[in-house]
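Re: the request from the purification team.
They wanted to know what the chain is likely to look like in 3D before they choose a buffer screen. I agreed to run a prediction and write the result into the notebook, where they can find it.
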Amino acid sequence: MLPVTLSSPVVRLDMPTRADTVAITEACADPAIQRFTTVPSPYRPQDAHAFIDALVGPGWASDREYTWAIRRPHSTWLEGVIAFRTAHRDLGFWLAPSARGSGMMTAAVGLVVDWAFSRGNADVYWECFVGNTGSAGVARRAGFSYTGTGPGLIPGRDGRDVECWKGLRRADGVPATDRPWPEAAAPT
């Protein structure tokens, strides 16, 4: 598939390029991104190049993983990344510290989930490492139902299973479960 651009008044999503190397490298050095994702540690410019060259373009071309840069509507600066992986119909995302609390990620998740539904997906899965209250908050605000805690789809940096909070959003709008979010991830 050719990359598509998605936008709203809050955010614009397009394909990351090598021009985003500095923004990606700076963001991925953030302690929270290092803690709650599997990005290389330490994160270097060559890691950003590998991400762009080996994952982003080939992911779109193979329909395996659709990855977007998260930008403010009239800016070229990358504020984060969101991806939809087709094998498990799941989302992965991160946002630079300077953009957190802006509503950009919730808007980005909404755009990508709606796009996935428009392509015939019956549901979209989300997970985050246990303790990642920011990601859990985005999932709640974006309409995901909490479905439980268990080993993640993607192993940790060391190859071991990582305990994750999990959620599901269905295309028909019916909540996937009525389970309450863990207390640590519940709205305040």
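For the purification team: The mean pLDDT is 96.
Please add any questions underneath this entry.
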